Amino acid sequence: MSDIRKTIVVAVAENGVIGRDGDMPWRLSTDLKRFKAMTLGKPLVVGRKTYESFGKPLPGRPHVVISRHATIEQSDVTMARSFPEAIGIAERLARETGQIEIIIAGGGEIYAQAMALADRMCVTHVQTHVAGDTSFPSIDPAAWMVIEEIDVPAGEKDNYPTRFVVYERRSA
């Protein structure tokens, strides 16, 4: 059992959509500010397509990018060929920097693999249905317990209101 907490961070529409055409299908400035505050300093595990959607490494966070083929030559980016390798690298980076948590931030394939292994999920439930090509796995209430819930009205730079929910894995 690892001493490093594995946390999924995701924004998901009511119909399960998290992405469209390599980007998020909404503008949620309020949520992006929360994402930055929650992830600063912590290793960020992402797939190559998600990393490319950022345009450049997000400042203040070591990135572990998963790709079977691509190589990204950037400072603050470590490549991994598989999800298990990425988790191992991120845990090592967390220990080296005194962090107790790694963040798993997408995309769809990465989230699907992370569901069995994550300890915690921070989910922004976007209160809309949108068209998209990438989805988040359904959250099984038998496996996950809500420990915090906050309704967030749409701010002036947000397309939709949201509900921010923190889930913790139920003990076996």
UniProtKB/TrEMBL annotation:
It catalyses: (6S)-5,6,7,8-tetrahydrofolate + NADP(+) = 7,8-dihydrofolate + NADPH + H(+). It comes from Rhizobium gallicum bv. gallicum R602sp. The lineage of its organism: Bacteria, Pseudomonadati, Pseudomonadota, Alphaproteobacteria, Hyphomicrobiales. Pathway: Cofactor biosynthesis; tetrahydrofolate biosynthesis; 5,6,7,8-tetrahydrofolate from 7,8-dihydrofolate: step 1/1. One of its GO terms (biological process) is folic acid metabolic process. PROSITE patterns: DHFR_1 (PS00075), DHFR_2 (PS51330). It is an enzyme of class 1 (oxidoreductase). One of its GO terms (molecular function) is dihydrofolate reductase activity. This is Dihydrofolate reductase.
